[in-house]
Amino acid sequence: xxxxxxxxxxxxxxxxxxxxxxxxxxxxxxxxxxxxxxxxxxxxxxxxxxxxxxxxxxxxxxxxxxxxxxxxxxxxxxxxxxxxxxxxxxxxxxxxxxxxxxxxxxxxxxxxxxxxxxx
Length: 119
Description:
Blueprint: H1 9-32, E1 39-42, E2 47-51, H2 58-72, E3 75-76, E4 80-83, E5 87-96, E6 102-111
Parallel strand pairs: 2-6
Antiparallel strand pairs: 1-2, 3-5, 4-5, 5-6
């Protein structure tokens, strides 16, 4: 990648296009594997962020991240509570491709009840 001090808008557009192309390939393989859909964000720095639906039960969100992580061979991260007692974050990351690697981040922010238990 280019040194961040010299990143241009052209660089960012190219990186976003590369991430977009990777997302297209990823969605095709996810369809074949019958993975649950995620909401995707295509960033300008070759990063894709897939998030679960916050309205889904915690068990469904947790399973979606596990399924996607297994499909991508993604590294799971320790869970943490960004808002203590209110949400628990479940995350995994993978890097896809070699010529123009794209980082894929999988995120589920699970709602917790007033006692710190998943809804």
